[in-house]
Design a protein that fits this description.
The protein has four helices and four strands, in the order E-H-E-H-E-H-E-H. The chain is an alpha/beta fold. The protein has a single domain, classed as Transcription Regulator spoIIAA (2-Layer Sandwich), CATH 3.30.750. Strands 1-2-3-4 form a four-stranded parallel sheet, with helices on both faces. Strand 3, helix 3 and strand 4 form a beta-alpha-beta unit. Helix 2 packs across helix 3. The protein is globular, with a radius of gyration of 14 Å.
């Protein structure tokens, strides 16, 4: 199983979310991969409007690969969970979407949804955080 792993840290901005989508999902080599997004270390979500969640869902559905895949969002906070569920609903309503989205409070639930028996190695974040 191939999976893209992303983790938010600190304040998550609208620009970062859309930038991640453009940078990663425009690559042909990841088409059809499953995805794990961990929001456990996000302390604040700076989102200009709920419309941006809808925009992201539409953009994501348009860029889906030809076959089915899964996206698990780990969202322990109420705000992250609520936004994740809004995104999940919008993706499910879009006929172009081939990705099944699940939003979970724990990594264990997300791994079960992705049919993974252990968490992938986290990305190397050395140098990614301000000194």
């Amino acid at each position: 199983m191939k999976v893209v792993v992303a983790a938010g840290i600190g304040t998550l901005t609208d620009e970062e979310v859309f930038g991640y989508h453009r940078e990663v999902w425009s690559r042909k080599e990841v088409a059809g991969y499953d995805e794990l997004i961990d929001m456990s270390r996000v302390g604040h979500i700076a989102l200009p409007s709920a419309q941006r969640v809808r925009d992201l869902a539409e953009t994501s559905a348009k860029d889906d690969g030809p076959g089915p895949s899964r996206l698990a969002v780990v969202a322990p906070s109420d705000l992250a969970f609520g936004l994740g569920r809004m995104y999940q609903t919008r993706r499910a309503q879009d006929p172009r979407s081939t990705k099944q989205v699940g939003v979970f409070r724990t990594i264990a639930e997300a791994l079960e949804f992705l049919r993974m028996d252990h968490a992938p190695e986290p990305p190397d974040l050395e140098g990614a955080l301000p000194a």
